[in-house]
């Protein structure tokens, strides 16, 4: 049984995040590992970057509070998990760990042990928010080598009836869709719609769209995939329109090395993309 890794680095929305991770994992029959990580070394180094005088007292207070939470994090998570299991039937195994390791290294270590790992994270940056923007952290989606599932605020129950995969005609879309089909095969009545946006839909684009649909069906071996073509000024507008019409439960995107989706996942745009649609977002990586 493959594993989902829920990475926590604060108590913010902890009950909802744990509940959603359990719900998703239980529904798709995947084990769950919950790791509370707080990289104090990174925080200290960030405090000192460019510092010419005394460390900001506010940042000292942030670390002090973080250490207080860190000491009881495992107990807190186990209490939240126990409360969830009292109310719901859980048929998967789960583990809880705490660490001061760099969180990118945490993910890589788990990925080395479990190639089928999926990383679950919140859509907010706790380090930055706790310090009033004075401390940042490398973008996890940019630096990890596994699919990343981003949980929005106020989500507790995993529903996977309507899934939309936003495509930009990437050659690796078929591989990502095959993984997605395997992932959700235990979710009854789940439907995947492949969405593409084309600003200029002429004869050549029509041929590409027709050929793309046939290639995807052939390579995935699934003839029941749905397809939707939009004609908007940009892909975000197309996804917004599709979401308004169909209310999908999950948005899936390929993080590309070039092209429109690369622009969506620049350092400045990532947070906007992941919070814009108020939906869970699953991110696959090109290559």
Automatic annotation (TrEMBL):
It comes from Mariniphaga sediminis. Residues 234-285 form the UspA domain. This is UspA domain-containing protein. It comes from the Bacteria. CDD domains: USP-like.
């Amino acid at each position: 049984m493959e594993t989902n890794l829920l990475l926590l680095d604060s108590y913010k929305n902890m009950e909802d995040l744990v509940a959603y991770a359990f719900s998703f994992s239980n529904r798709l029959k995947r084990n769950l590992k919950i790791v509370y990580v707080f990289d104090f070394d990174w925080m200290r180094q960030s405090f000192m970057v460019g510092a010419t005088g005394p460390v900001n007292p506010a940042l000292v207070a942030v670390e002090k509070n973080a250490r207080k939470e860190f000491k009881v994090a495992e107990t807190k998570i186990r209490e939240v998990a126990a409360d969830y299991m009292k109310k719901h039937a859980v048929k998967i195994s789960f583990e809880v760990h705490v660490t001061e390791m760099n969180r990118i290294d945490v993910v890589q270590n788990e990925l080395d042990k479990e190639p089928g790992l999926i990383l679950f994270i919140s859509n907010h940056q706790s380090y930055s928010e706790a310090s009033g923007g004075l401390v940042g952290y490398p973008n996890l989606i940019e630096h990890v080598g596994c699919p990343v599932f981003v949980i929005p605020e106020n989500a507790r129950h995993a529903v996977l009836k309507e899934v939309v995969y936003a495509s930009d005609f990437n050659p690796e879309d078929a591989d990502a869709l095959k993984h997605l089909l395997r992932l959700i095969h235990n979710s009854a009545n789940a439907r995947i719609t492949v969405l593409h946006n084309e600003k200029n839909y002429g004869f050549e684009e029509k041929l590409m769209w027709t050929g793309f649909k046939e290639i995807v069906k052939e390579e995935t071996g699934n003839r029941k995939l749905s397809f939707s073509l939009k004609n908007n000024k940009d892909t975000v507008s197309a996804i917004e329109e599709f979401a308004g019409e169909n209310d999908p439960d999950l948005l899936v995107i390929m993080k590309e090395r070039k092209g429109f989706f690369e622009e969506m996942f620049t350092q400045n745009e990532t947070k906007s993309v992941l919070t814009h649609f108020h939906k869970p977002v699953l991110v696959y990586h090109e290559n």
